[in-house]
Every structure is written in structure tokens, then in C-alpha cells.
Specification:
The chain is an alpha+beta fold and about 240 residues long. It is built from 4 helices and 11 strands, in the order E-E-E-E-E-H-H-H-E-E-E-E-E-E-H. It has a domain at about 1-45.
């Protein structure tokens, strides 16, 4: 993918990214101080045609669009399913009082049996903290597609760093995250299909299909990838 360099129409000097307002499609030349619009140079006719309708930005997701890259931030506190948090609270609410009562009574054999359940509760608690505190940062440029989770390490959600030219398609998947009262609880993941045929899970645990599809839309739009149907995709 070829990067585009914006030049001042008055003095032809290159305009750095920090002097460009991609939202309003205006820029200011640091050499001659000319303020100009560049909307005509990057018109919508250059964008790929999407088979799916335009998806508006969901709650909990923020996007910064620059000429050289797109930055997407996902607040897991606002976008993840509340099922896991509820499950963690219920699990620990049951195990913790029983463990305390067992310690007081001195029933060490029972405590040994409960230690596994207590360990599971601690793991669930940590994962819940990552859900409440973490933000995922997606940076898309002509070179790389990078996904980072901060500030806590997120189990089963590895960071990703993929060369952009390897990306063939992105697609959302609906999957069963668990059950509540015997009824399935669904969440959504975002996958990257590489040109080699390899499938990479970019994100998972999103609460709605719109969240996954919006991120897909923004990445494909920047990389100028025409949307295509992928087997197993949720549409």
C-alpha cells in the first residue's frame, strides 16, 4: 500500500501529520502558514465499496484517523459482556465463605478439596479486573496491524502484530461464551484471514456484533480491502 504525502497548495511544502486535521479534512502549512482543505484529494471515490451497510461507532470504542494510520481504542469495561463478571461474583461469593468456615473449623481435608475451586476463583477475579481496567489499542498502518492490551496482561487475549500486506479479509464470529440458567450467552470475536489461508483471532469477548463489525469496517477501509463473505462469518 502506497503512503500519501500531503503538500501545501501554495508553496508545495510537505505537511507533517501533526498539522493535519483528518476529521475536518483541513491542514496548515508550517512553512507559509496557509490553511487549506484537502477533501478533494482524498474523496470517497477512492474508498472500497462495502457490501454491508455503514456501521456507526459503538459505545466504548474510539477512533483516531490519520493519513498514515488509524488508531482504535476499545474500553473493555464498556464493550465486554457482563456475563463473565456476574459469573465471577457468584463463584467467589460461594467459595469464599465456605473456605473461611472450613479454615475456622479446621477441616483441612475439605480445604484441600476446595483449594482448586479457590484457585479458579482467583483466576476469574484477575480476568474480571482486566475487563474492568484494560483498554485494547489497535494501530493500523500501511505496514503493520498491531493489537495491544494494557495495562494488565490479558489471559487468552495475546497481543498481535501482523504485516498489513498479509491481510486478506476480516470477519466477525458469534460464539457461545457460557450459559446462564441453562441458556447460552453469546459474545463476538474478530478474525483476520491471511492471504496464506491462516486464520488469526484478533479479538474476542465483544458484547455486540456491531462492535466487532465496526472494527472490521474501519480496518478494511483503511487498508482498502473490499468486504467479502467468509465462511463462518456472522453477518
Amino acid at each position: 500500500m502506497t503512503q500519501q504525502q500531503l503538500h501545501c497548495p501554495s508553496c508545495s511544502a510537505p505537511v507533517p501529520a501533526e498539522d493535519i486535521n483528518i476529521t475536518r479534512m483541513v491542514a496548515k502549512c508550517s512553512q507559509c502558514h496557509t490553511v487549506f482543505s484537502f477533501e478533494s484529494e482524498f474523496s470517497a471515490t477512492n474508498a472500497p465499496v462495502y457490501s454491508k451497510p455503514e456501521i456507526l461507532m459503538p459505545v466504548g470504542i474510539e477512533v483516531l484517523r490519520l493519513l498514515s494510520e488509524v488508531q482504535i481504542e476499545i474500553s473493555w469495561r464498556k464493550t465486554s459482556s457482563k456475563f463473565f463478571i456476574l459469573f465471577t461474583v457468584i463463584w467467589n461469593a460461594i467459595i469464599l465463605p465456605v473456605s473461611i468456615a472450613t479454615i475456622i473449623s479446621g477441616e483441612w481435608q475439605i480445604l484441600l478439596f476446595l483449594s482448586l475451586h479457590f484457585s479458579v476463583g482467583l483466576v476469574l477475579l484477575y480476568v474480571t479486573l482486566t475487563t474492568l481496567l484494560n483498554t485494547t489499542y489497535i494501530t493500523v498502518s500501511s505496514r503493520r496491524l498491531v493489537v495491544e492490551h494494557k495495562p494488565l496482561w490479558l489471559p487468552f487475549h495475546p497481543d498481535q502484530d501482523i504485516a498489513s500486506f498479509l491481510v486478506k479479509q476480516l470477519y466477525a464470529v458469534k460464539y457461545e461464551q457460557g450459559k446462564t440458567n441453562g441458556r447460552p450467552v453469546y459474545a463476538y470475536s474478530l478474525h483476520v484471514l491471511l492471504k496464506s489461508g491462516q486464520d488469526v483471532k484478533l479479538l474476542k469477548g465483544l458484547k455486540t456484533a456491531e462492535q466487532a463489525q465496526y472494527i472490521e469496517q474501519e480496518i478494511e477501509r483503511f487498508l482498502k480491502i473490499s468486504d467479502e463473505v467468509v465462511e463462518g462469518e456472522y453477518r
